[in-house]
Amino acid sequence: MSTADNCPSADSCSTQPEANASIGRMNRPEELNRNMDVSTFVDSNGGLIDRAIYNEPAIYAQEQRRIFARSWLFLAHTSQFKKPGDFFTTFMGEDPIIVTMDKTKKIRAYLNSCRHRGVRLCRADAGATKMFTCSYHGWSFDLAGALKTVPNEKAYPEDFDKNKWSLIEVPNVQEYKGLIFGNWDHEAEPLEEALGDMRYYMDAMLDRDPEGTEVMGGVMKWELDGNWKLAAEQFATDWYHVNMSHASALMVLSPTGKGPKPEIAATPGRQFVSENGHGAGFPTHPKSRFDARPVHEYYDYEMLRERLGDAAVEGPMTTGHATVFPNFSYLPVNGSIRVWHPKGPNKIEVWAWVLVDKSMPDDVKDAQRLYNLRTFGPSGIFEADDGENWSEIQAISGGFVTNRVPLNFQMGIGSEREDGVYPGKTSELYSDAAGRAFYKHWAKIMNTPAWHERNK
């Protein structure tokens, strides 16, 4: 095998040749890495999806190799790291990851697995440290990932070199306005290019405040029955379910207790459609702002119009929804950002944060936090509805006949266009356009060899 076959990139191997070259250096049976052609599972032009993509173990295993091992994945927010040694542990797909700030204040990410016997090196969710020490045999690594301490080192062969056993580093870590993403592919297109026009829609949440954003409190975590794509796709494309699935929640939030007025319930809006699988939907009715009153009263909308533009304030900043492919989603009006961590074909672990503007007074930040918990926290009045839908889809997907019936994603076919108001292509709010684009991109990269398959 060549060097490039054994690590995320030849460049990263040049700094730690033996450490990174150990990725995939063993000769494995080809069956463990066999890929299937998934093009027949997704008919993006006809708007049909084979539901086997949600429960087939072989497809899930291929996603780990070709989706999560080569996409830009959300890791953390910059506000979680204030000084060298601060760390946060997360996942890229099912790979455990340590994100930390090194002594130069650079944010770095490592595979959270000791190079000795493979135990999870850091078991804390977050904290501060000077060294990462394995609780199994005591191997210790510094903030730059270098192996520093090996108990009973004299028992190892003379040619044992600690420099060759550093932590496996995620070679590509980049930030966009406070959001930190990682990619195992050193040669991946830059994060901002991968986001493309999606940046405009993200900015409606991330760029309201000249001082930026910060996460408030810790991360909320809960498990759901369902496939990760069900959640990611819904947040990219599905306003259609709101009036039905969330009818009771809308009644609770409406002033009359009877739900929103018809003109608001049938709100106009747009849906952004990205060829990279991202998607965002948003109403454009001026009263489509179901946010906490103190937050609404805090904002100077004239100032925001000058900063972001009229269209952004009237659209993406409202009660919308969005997904950055593959599994990072957000809700701009209540500051919810979340990752749909895959835990097998039939399980999702949701990690969610409350995002606030840095300049907000403490009482406004707290209002945002409480509103977030009531609506889209683990027991939020909207969140519970969504989880129930996804678990119901998954619960019956194992049936033989059920699994042979395609799913319909035909709403809004042919409506995608450049409307001259919002960047990129958009469709109507009530549309499956971003969902079709999500699965089209999913199928494309599932059928494309990744970095670890190059030059084999």
Automatic annotation (TrEMBL):
Keyword NAD carried by entry: yes
Superkingdom of the source species: Bacteria
GO terms assigned for molecular function: dioxygenase activity
Region (Disordered) location: 1-29
Keyword Metal-binding: yes
Family label: Belongs to the bacterial ring-hydroxylating dioxygenase alpha subunit family.
Polar residues: bias regions: 1-19
Residue ranges constituting the Rieske domain according to the UniProt record: 73-170
Annotated keywords: 2Fe-2S, Aromatic hydrocarbons catabolism, Dioxygenase, Iron, Iron-sulfur, Metal-binding, NAD, Oxidoreductase
Pfam families from the UniProt entry: Rieske (PF00355), Ring_hydroxyl_A (PF00848)
InterPro entries: ARHD_Rieske_2Fe_2S, RHO_NdoB-like_C, Rieske_2Fe-2S, Rieske_2Fe-2S_sf, Ring_hydroxy_dOase_asu_C_dom, Rng_hydr_dOase-A
Organism: Glutamicibacter mysorens
Official protein name in the record: 3-phenylpropionate/trans-cinnamate dioxygenase alpha subunit
